[in-house]
Amino acid sequence: MEASELRERLDSVWQRMLGREWDEPATNERYFAVIQEAHSRPELRSLFPYTSLTRLCFSRSSEHPYTDLPCVWFGSIGYLVQASAVPDEPVPLLLDLTDSEQAAVDALVHGLPVDRTAWVGPGPTPPR
Question: Is residue 78 part of a domain?
């Protein structure tokens, strides 16, 4: 895989995320605020964003199954940042609960692993 293919795929996914709309106005407002803040951070911009219900999640892989990285739930009460997006964990570790999209994204970045190498293809391990 070439670096240009990865960059093209990342750019495409981010543009789709930045243009997404929700039916619920409050959710839509929170979503746009946090996705724009996340997009401004190089650590997150180099990962594949995706949504799961009302959560913004990140993966090193471009296709399902996605790699497990921190995610942020966005709702009318604010942002809840979890250490994991894995659905079968009983209670994922809470990294932050805040009204600030900047603080939520700070918590996301802080919760990322050292190796954030992204790839085109399914997870959980990078293709050789």
Answer: yes
d(CA 96, CA 48): 21
Tokens of 38: 């996340």
> For the residues 98-113, what does the mean pLDDT come to?
95
**126 part of a folded domain:** no
Q: Of 8-17, 24-33, 112-121, which gets the smallest average pLDDT?
A: 24-33
User: Which domain does 48 fall in, by range?
Assistant: 3-113
pTM listed for this prediction:
0.87
For residue 49, being part of any structural domain is answered with yes
For 81, counting Cβ atoms within 10 Å of its Cβ (0-12 exposed, 13-18 middle, 19+ buried), the class is buried
